[in-house]
Structures are given as structure tokens and as C-alpha cells.
Amino acid sequence: GRSLMAQEEKQRLCCASHQRAAHYNRQVDIMWALIKVLAACVLAAICQTAPAGAQLVSKKVEKASERRIIVRYSTSDASTSLVDRVKNLETIPGVRRAKALPRLDMAVITCDSEEGEETLLDILDTHDDVELAVPDTWVSADDFKHVEADSAGSSQSACEAHPSCKGMGLNGSCCPSEDGIRLACCEEPAEPEDSTGPKLRPHPHGYTTVSLQSYHGGFVRAYPAGFVGFHDDKEHPHARFFIVPHADGHVSFKTMNGLYLVADPVGRIMAWPRRRHRANDWEKFKLTYNQDGTISLRGKSSDLYVGAENPSWGVLSCNRDVADESGKFTVHVKHGPDAVIPSDTNFSKLWGMDHFGGRDIDAVEAWKIFTGDDSKGIIVAVIDTGIDYTHPDLKDQMWVNPNEIPGNGIDDDGNGIIDDVHGADFANSDGDPFDDQMHGTHCSGTIAGRGDNGEGVAGVSWKGVKLMALKFLSKDGGGRTSDAVSALDYAVAMGARITSNSWGGGGSSSAMRVAIERATQAGMLFIAAAGNEATDNDQVPHFPSNYASGSIVSVAATTYKGELSSFSCYGQTTVDVAAPGSDIFSTVPGAGYDSLSGTSMACPHVSGLAALVWMYRPHLSMMQVKEILMQSSVREEALQGSSISNGRINARRALELAAQYEAPIPPVHAAQGLVFTDVDPRVGMVGGVATITAASNEDDVDYYSLHFISSAGYLMDSLGQAPATGKATLTIELNGSVAIPGFVTGLAVVTGNASAEAGHETAVIADLEDYGVPEHGPQAVYWAGDYDGRPKWVAGALQIQRAPNEASVSHYNVYWKDGGVRGNLVDSIPAVGFKTPTCSGCELINQSYADGIYSYHRGPYENNEYAEISFSGPATVTITEFNTEKYYDYLEVAGTQITGTDVALPKIIEVPAGPAAISWYSDTSEVAAGWTIQMQQSGQNAELVLDPVKPTTLEVEVAAAYGKWESNETATGTILDFDSETMTPSAAFTPKAIRFKDTNVAAGFIEGLVEIQPADIANNGVVTAYDLVLADDEGNKVGHLTWSVDYPVNSSVAAAVPIPNLKLPLTASKFVARAVSSTGESEFETTLELVDIVRSPPQGAAWSGDSDGDMGIVKGTLTITPAAVTINVVGYSIYTATVTQKSSFLTRVAATSDGTPITAEIHYYYTQGEGLLVVTAYADGEMDSGVFVEVDDMIEVYEEPDDNETEPDADYGWGGWGWGGWENRRLGSVPQPWLPQMPELSQIHLLWTASEASTASHKVLGSVTIHGMALQVVDPSTGDAVFMPPSEHQRRAILAAVAQSLPGVSAEQVRLLTGRVFTGSAAKARAAGRGRKLSAEVKDASKNSPGLVIDFEVVSMDVSTARQSFLDRVEARLIRMSQGGASAKKLNEAMAKELVKSGYELPESGLHTLVAEPQQVQPRETISETRDRRLKEHEVAGVFTDRDGTVTTVFADDDEDTQESSGTLAAILAVLGATAAVAGAVFIATRDSWKVGRPKRANVEMESISIHVNERSDE
Description:
- With 1515 residues, the chain is an alpha+beta fold.
- The chain is 16% helix and 33% strand.
- The chain is built from 20 helices and 79 strands.
- The strands form 24 sheets. Strands 44, 45, 46, 47, 48, 49, 50 and 51 form an eight-stranded antiparallel beta sheet that branches. The chain has a seven-stranded parallel beta sheet with strand order 21-22-20-24-26-27-28, sandwiched between helices. Strands 70, 71, 74, 75, 76 and 77 form a six-stranded antiparallel beta sheet that branches.
- The longest helix is centred in the first third of the chain and has 20 residues, at 19-38.
């Protein structure tokens, strides 16, 4: 962190000294923007250090395990419910599953395969009710320039009364501001005489003072007469100074007597009264922060440093060229009565909250006004990597789901997520959002870390905020857009009013944009990080912060000097405000703390402040809170042009401004009653008429609004409204197509008027009972046997085979049945969500079922296979054969991924209760032998225990039920009455289990102890003994041996039967045990499969030799001759070894059924002197000895690599720290891979640019890379190799191919912007991207050949509402192309065809195209535009509500002049058309000329562009 600060200071000094260097650096920054557009935003590869022992070479490649599509439906089409739409989706071939997002009118589809995804997208495009189907995309954690302005202020002569001052509410004399448009106060405003709210501070510095201690120990002292010397007491009033920050980055020192330190023209430091309103340069000083913790002062006017003269003189002078020891001062801070300082031990490290330099957010002054005490609280959803909810500074700040019981494994609130106590994990599809990375926990500490608790840190809003943890980013920092949409949906439904979003990157997604827009309708504020690429977001969009929704607050990052952080993105029309983001100290998992940098650290400062403001004034609307955040910001010259507000947030000013907003007046009279009955028989759907009893007094009531109400007690979207008419009752009809969100528990009605709508506290609530009929009934009923030996009395267990899918079943009702007539209810049994296995995409997989075991086998497989087996746990999955391409082809069993050949077989995986899946995936490259798995599912039977009862009938009937309603499908069963005096033992007395392990390893012989476990019932003397025999596969007795053993003393003790050395009959395959009573042997039995334990080593093994030329790495094929006796052999384990001593396990290969030789591909780290040891593996263990094979390491000599060649991916060493090591990490030592890593500029060669900047405000930006088309020639004049641009005909061919590949796009709508060639690592990086499917040819081309990169834009000719749909479809198609697959192949074919038509000769290797993720650009919605749109929406609904009033107030600005703060911002400028690629063209063309200080014109087309950029720089 401190290294980053030092770099920023060094860069600033260089810029101040060398104007041409600054201009050059600005163009370098723009060039980084160009690179950012082209590269997929993926976190760096995780460093994996090889352990000391040998292991397989494993550089893991992250890849997408699923193909998903986000489907967006029209909100206006209510003819079909979302639930029905999702069910219809699941019937389409190629859909593995579909998930509804009712709050957003969206669905997420998981596809069977890449090809299936392409087909589904084409099918969905033809559906009339589908607005858009867009492929899912990846995003990542977003953490981990400034333009010099004219500092000359308005002259004193211009400061005369202005006719508009009075109308604007400005106090004092007024003058035009520096921009000539706004008005500003030229004199310090008078303090309001009477104010019921927080008073606006008359002094910008507050009451906190500092003492400056010089190197000789004395404290700077300003005498009232003007002399400046030293004093030995830092508490003396003359030795304490207010620091007054100025917008130009300087500060003034003001005494408690109102004097200012001034460096006079001869260099003396004096104390003078200010004779003018605005500070002049003589009293301004720059703070320089030294490495030893001291500061130095540099006068602005003289540009010299301040130093302490000889202590005996006791004076200060501003006359030094450098800051020496005499110019170093230690700062002692004394907070005034206007600040609250919490007791947290690390609070002094939180410079963003409080810092004497004045570039903090004034948190301690804000806390004096309000900390959150006595507020109703607010929920802030942190959509990130999760939160360590056990952290001592966060555990008491966590949101708790009020309707979820922790740790019971049940979805108590019925929202589809089990145990979502503090939020949910959408990355791993469970209810535990614990942070396995660090990022989300760090952000959470800044938002709401518990303050004043004597430890750690304090968040901006440390009282009243409840943090909702919504994890969608995995531990590597990456995540899916579809999971982000799901997290946003959850946040809205569970009552969050603010979401903090420190993530982004890649391209845009209309699905995410619409999700934010629909969350905006619910009044949610979306705080987003602006990005860390140091680029202009006006030119190079960053998402999600660049989406157009008015609810978004895009946040840039600043340093403690008040400057924009060197990494921070900016944007005069697309970034809203800045906040501290460099070297931010906060919480990290494991009860730790650390410093990180990034706009991700700035974003939570704003989220915390938004929460503080909203708790302070709960009546504020979402847009009013945003307006307050921006209008209360402190403007800095260093931040001019960086955002719409040009400033940094200020908590104290925000609360003062919030106090000025007039509170709305909602109705005080509420409805008196609400009645509703669901008449829709579909589970999950609601329909009917809501009857409302009107308020007793409707004087303040204009309408009644009907809502769903969530389990957390929050009102959700309105289902309808009815105007207040004076009638006693009103009705609102639901049309039967309304889906019930999983979070809903009832309906609620509230009253509203033109001022506001009443909240949920006054709502009248009706419980919502979903009327639904189960789709499936029970399959069978079994009687497990009567253990009550009395005649006509029964006791035992009823076994009910559950419905094949319990999704629509809540419980089963069991009735007596007599003569076909249903009798009394016996009891009810709850459903558990049971689901029998169903396989999607399993046409190539052999499936079978026998004796309760499901078997699945895939032999030698092909590329691009995908299948999923969905079922419910608990279950046991046994993998008996497995051989796939490591990392790329894999099985995933209930979250456990199995890949490669190093699998110990048989591998047993216990699947816990709940929904589960087994997924099979193969990629586009190598194939292997395949796999076999077996699954035994538990829980398919529900059990009802009958205590001793004397029934009137022995027949029962079972019906599936949902709530009060039952299915027509029922199952019946018969109870058998057991009489112990006349009957052999019933099934209830059958032994519970048999246990046996063979101790004789010879083939065909067994020996050991058989244990027979009695049934868990009271025996009551019924069973006297057990008979044990050997049986064949059919259950028939083998041989003449029968072992008999007495019943043990009680049912908890097993009966033991010793088996001597016994030669097995050839047909014997199992033990069979039966209970025996005085009446004979029972007909019911328990069996145990007999396993003859045999040990036989492999007969031999042969090594192919090393094919890997690298020293220390061995690769080859090991051929194994199977054991002579293959009975019960499951595989062969391979170890590195020294002759017979095992060293490290490498892999296990499955045994073959026919005894043929087995091959194993081995690739591992080699240790001198070691070979390979092959041992036989059995189900119960493996042998210690086997066959040893010698191995030699073959080493090849390579040519030295090019020193200029660099790898595209940095290794951040994340493997160097993890759980258990937090306490050993030092401040600033944490890897921060989110900060930009850029390729060499020498690897990028500009070919051409468009002659004119784009004028389209709504467009889609795209980029295509073509390998095999970069033509390189030798420049005869210089002898240098240069790249030639494509001809005009070839460029037209490229344009035509792009247009043909996009839906409904003509060539006139496509415009090529720039052409460049990427070489080396820059070309390799173009192929990066999560979820991208590339063929081996394209991968090779991206590594071995330069890439021709062409940026283009697509615009709509239509300016109507159809324009958005057109651009969304173009964006969706480009996303499909960026992920590879059929769409990308079609583009490649069209490109080749059009180029051939243009006369271009294709290379022998062919063309290989790559498409980057698109970026859809549209103007940001201003606050006033959002307000107007929402008012119109209310008008359309027939209800007019204006909650977004405006306020005009006056703030004391940092220079003691005033800053107007009006409730309506000026309209945001349209997004500028020029792209960073064009700026890059200027940079490449003119960088050489800048070295000599004289710009050259690269070509005629670029002249106007160069002028435009230079003018922009001057601004």
C-alpha cells in the first residue's frame, strides 16, 4: 500500500515538472484503456507450488463447467405464468434445468452442451413472449486522470451583487463562478440565525486542531502580534492550528485567533489575518508525507520548503530547495467537540474516515450528528465473495433471516435455499455465504465494521446496518452474470435497500442491465466500483458501473492526498463520485485486518454513507439519497473531470444536507381488513380476488395498494391498486398468472396518497395459503412386519414409497380403509424433497437399475459431451472405473470434481440430503476410456411407526398432499397380523444386518467371524436363534452346512458365528440369515454378498520411456500385466518408489474384466534414483508389495528464449497464504491481482483508424481478432519489419462478414473503427476468457501467430423503442460469438468467404477468428430523468406520487466560498463517441514526435483526432 502511495507521489512530481512527459503519460493511460477493451477480465492464474514429493504436473486451467442462458420475458405479457414458462423450458430438448427468477421476470437455463446452447438460443429467439435470450457471462472482483484545471479564481472586482443571488438563496455578495455559468459566494456566508436541523458549519475545518513538532522538539507557535516561533507545550492555544484544505490540493494553517500562517516574499513565516475572502497563494502550503511518518511543508507561491531555523532563534523560514531534517514536523492531532472518535484499536489507520490532511470523508464529524443509534436500521447486501460472518468486527453486524432456523438442514422459509441464515451462496448453490477469498469481508468492514468496541476497525455506518452476504464470486474472484442476477433478486425480496457491488469487467449483458432496472423499480440503490484500469469510462465502458440505470452510483478511488488513485477509472459523464480507495485498512477472514487498494475499497465507503444517510432520514427516496451523496461531495481540482460531481464524498455534509429535505406525509389511516382465497390449483401460482375493508377515515387516503409480503416482513412489488372511493369494501383481482416468489408468506395492503405510501408497519396482512394439487402420488405401501404377537393387535412400521418427485408434495396422509371406504386419519408423514434419478443428455450413457442400484457407464467418449443426473440425497455414489483427460474432462458428483487418472478406485462419495446432481463434461480436445458409476439412493421410503393398536381393518390408504389439498393418486397396503403362538417370526424380526470380513487371502477359501445384528424391536421371547447358510445368486442354499446361534442377551448385541478355514463351493455368493422361533424358521431373510479376500500382485509392468524433454519432469506410458488371480481386484495403484519402498502416490487405474494389459499415462515430477511401483488394489485395501519399474529422465537442450518475450498471465502467488496463516501476513503484503497487468506497448501495432469520431449515443462496441491475416513486410527505407493494413476491399469484406453474422444487421449499420496487430503475449492474451470454448487450431493460432484486431461499432437506424431490443440482440449474439462454438464458426466461415470474394488468398492454415465480449453503450440516466420517469410510471398506474422533492442549500466549501447544492442535477452529457482505440491511434502515431516536443501528423485522417485529444487534455 505504501509502495503504491510512493509511486503516485513520484508520478505527480514528474507531471508537475515535465509537461510533455505528462502529455505522454496521459496517452499511455488511454492506451491501457484500449488494451482493457480487448482483454477478457479474468483474475490471474493461481500459483501452485509443487510439493517436495513427486506429483502429477498440474497447472490447472479454470474453465466454465456449465453453459447457461438468461431468458428475459416481457413484463406486460401476463397470458402465461413464469412458472409455466419455466416448465415449458424444461421440456425443450437440450435444457438440463431451468430456474425462475420471479422478481425479475427472468429465468436461467442450464444447457446440456455447447451445441445445445446454440440450438436453444435459436429456438428461444423465435418465442413471441421472450424479450431476449442471452448467453451467461463471467465477471470478477473489481479491486484489487486527472486533468489540471485553471486555478485562477474570480477576481475581487468581479465579486459584486448578482441579480439572481437572492433567487438562488445565496448569502453574502455573489459573483459568477469560474466556469461563467454557475454562481458562487465571494464572501463567507453568515451562519443561519435559527435552524431546527443541523447547522451548516461556518468554518470548513471544524474544531479539530493540530500541533506541529519540529525536529528539535519545539512546537510551532503563532503569536497574536504575527511573529511565529516555537513553544514547548503542544496544548498551548498559540501552538494549535486548524488545517483548512483547498480544492487545489493545498492547505492553510489557521490559528485559534483567526490568523493564517503566511510565507512572505522574503521567505519568512508570519501569522497574518486574512484580508480577503479567498485564500491567496502566500498562505497555501503543500503537505508532503515522509516515509518516517513526519510531514514537510512546501509553499505554493515560492515552491520552496519550510524549515526550522536554529532553535535559539525560534523562527520558521520558507527558503529551502529540498525538505531536510529541519523541515520535518510531527503532527499531533486533537479532535474537537464536533467529532466522535470510536475506541477501536486500529482506528488511526482508517485515513478515509479521519485524517488531518482534510482529504477524508469527515466521518468522525458526521458521527457527532448521527451514528445510527435509535434508528430502525437498514439492510445492505454485499454482492461479492461472501463475508466472514464469524469475524469479531462483523458477527454482530450480520443480517439474520428471521424465518430460517440455523443448521437444521431444512429450507424453513421455503425460498429454495437451505439454511440461508446470513444470506446465500450463488456460486456454490447453497445457503452458506462464508468468504473463502477475502474481498467481500474487506468491503464489509468498511461499510459497517462494528465501531467503538475496543478492537479492530469501525465502518462508515457502524450502528444499525445489517450486512446481507450474497456470494456469487468464487474463491478465485470470478463469477457468473446469472449468479449476480440471482443475488440481486434475493436482495430485493429479502428487504435490502442498498447493494454494494465491488466487481465488474468484461462486456455488458442486457440481462444484468434489466435486472438492475427492475431492482430500481423496487427502490434499491446500486453502488458500484468504477474499475481499476485507469481509463476513461466515458470512452471505454466498465460494467456494471456503466449501465444507464439512475439507481447506479459509480465510484472512483482517491488517495489520502485527495488525488485520484493511479489505478482508478474515471468519467465525466459515467462516474458519479469518488471516495477513499488507496491503502484502505479493513477486516479480512480469520479475525484479521489488512490494507488493500482498488475502487472496490472506495465503493463500500459510499455504500456505508448511503446507509447512514438513509437511517438518518428514512423518508428519503432512493434518488434523493443518490442526489445527497453527489451534491454533498467536496470538489477538488485534482478530481475535476473525474466524475459528474467532480468531488469526494463527505459524510458530515451529507447528513447536513439530508436534514434539509422535507419529510413526506403518508396516510395515518390504514385499511381495516384483507381477505383472499387462492383459486389457482397449480402449486406455486396464485389467483383470485382480494377483498379490502376500507379505512375508517379516508381523508388522507388516495388509494390502496396490494403487495406480496416476504418472510422477512418486507413489501414486495405491487399486485394492483384500487382508488379510495368511499365504499366500505374494495376488490383487486389477480388473474391467476401470478407466480408466488419463494420468499413470500402472505399478502398485504397499505394505503397511499400523493405524498407517500405507508410502510409495512401499518400493513394489513392476510396469510397466503397456496391452493395446489400434487403432481405425483405415493408409488406403493409396504408392511414391515408385526412385532406384537397378540392376535388382533398389530405394531410395526408402514413403509411408503415416496412420489418420484416431491416438488409439489408437502406431506403424505395415511388413512384406515375398510371395504374401499376411507376411514379415519392415522397420521401424516412430511415430504423431504425426494427425487428419483433422471438423466438429461444421457443418450450416449448406458443406464441400468437392479436391486436398488442405479448404474451409469460411459466407455470411450467423444468431444463436447455433457450430461447431468439429477436426484436427491442422501445417496452413496461409487466410482468403479475412471479414465479421463485431466482437468478438461470430468465428473462432478454433488460438488466434488473427479478428473484424470489419479483416482483411487473404487471412489465412494457420500451425498448429503437435499437436491443433488452428477454432471459429466468433456471438452474439445483429447478423449479417454471413460467411467462407470453406481448410485444407491436412500430415503426413497417414508416410515410411519404404529404403536400397538387393535385396528378395525387391516387395510390402509396413503395420499400425497400439498397443504390442505390431496392428490387423486393414492396407494393402498395390507397389514398382516402376527400370532406368535401359531406363526413363524414375521418380517419385523428379520436380522437388521450381517457383517463378515474374510481373513484368509487364499483364493477359494474363507475364514473369520460372522456377526448377525438383531432387529431394533422388543423381542419378548419370540426369536430363540438365528440360522446361517451359504446361498447362490438366486438365494438357494449351497451345500449342507447350516450354522445356528442363540439369540443374544438383547437386541443391541450381535450374535457371533465363527467360520473356520472353509473351502467355498463354486456357486456360493452370499450368506443368508433367518430368525427362528418355537414355531419354526421365518420365511424372511437378510443377506450379505460374500467377498473372498484374495491378494495377488501384478504379473509385470513396462515403461515406454520419457517423452518430456524438461529436466525433472517425466512423461510416458506404463503398461501393466494384470494379477494372475483377478478375483475382486478393483485396480492397480502406481507410486514413485525406491525398489519396494513407496514414496508418493501418483494414480490408480481400473482393472479390466477380461484380464487384458492396462495402460496408464504418467506425467510427474521426477526424483533421481526413484522408479515406479505398481501394486494391486482391492475394495478393502491394497497390497504393500508389487512390481518395480526403473525410470530415467530424458533431458533436451533448448535454445535460449527471446528476452523480450513475456508471458501473458502474471503469477500472483495466491498459494502462498491461506487458512491458518492470516496472523503472519504483514500490512500491504496481500496479493492484489485485480490491479491492472498490461502487455508491452511494443507488441501492439496501429494500422488505421476511422477518420471521424462516432456520433451515435446508443451503440454496441465489438472487436474481432483474425489470426492468419496480419501481413508483415520490410520497410525499404529503414529495413524494419512493419505490418501492412488490409486493403479497402478487404476491410469491406470484413465489415460485410460481421454484418452477416449479426441478427437483422446491414452493412450500413456496422462501422470499422480501428485496426491493429497484436503480437507476443498481447496476442496470447486475446484468447483468454472464462467460459470460452476454443478449438485446438484457434488456441495454437493465438499462441503462434500475430492477430489482426479490428474494433467496430453497430448502431440502430431506428430511434424508437425498438432500438433497445435491436441492440440487445446484437449484444447477445456477440456474447455467443465471444464464447466460441457454432456462432463463432459461422463468423469465421463468412469471413473467409467474403475475403475470397475480395481477392484475398487465404493462408494454408486458414483463418481463425476470435470475438471479444461486446460493450453496449447508452447515456447514463440523470437523477432528474429517473425522477420524471418514475412519476410517469405512477401516472400510468393511475396514482400520482411525488416523493422526490428538491432542496437548495448552501455549503461552506473548502476554500470558504460557497457551493450551490440543488436537488436536480444538470442533464448528463451524452456518451462521447470516440473510443480508446482511437486515442490509442493518436498515441502510436505521435509518440515519437512528442520526444522532440513537436507533434507530427501521422496521416490526414488523424489530424482532427489529435487536435481533439489535445483540447481535451487542456480541459
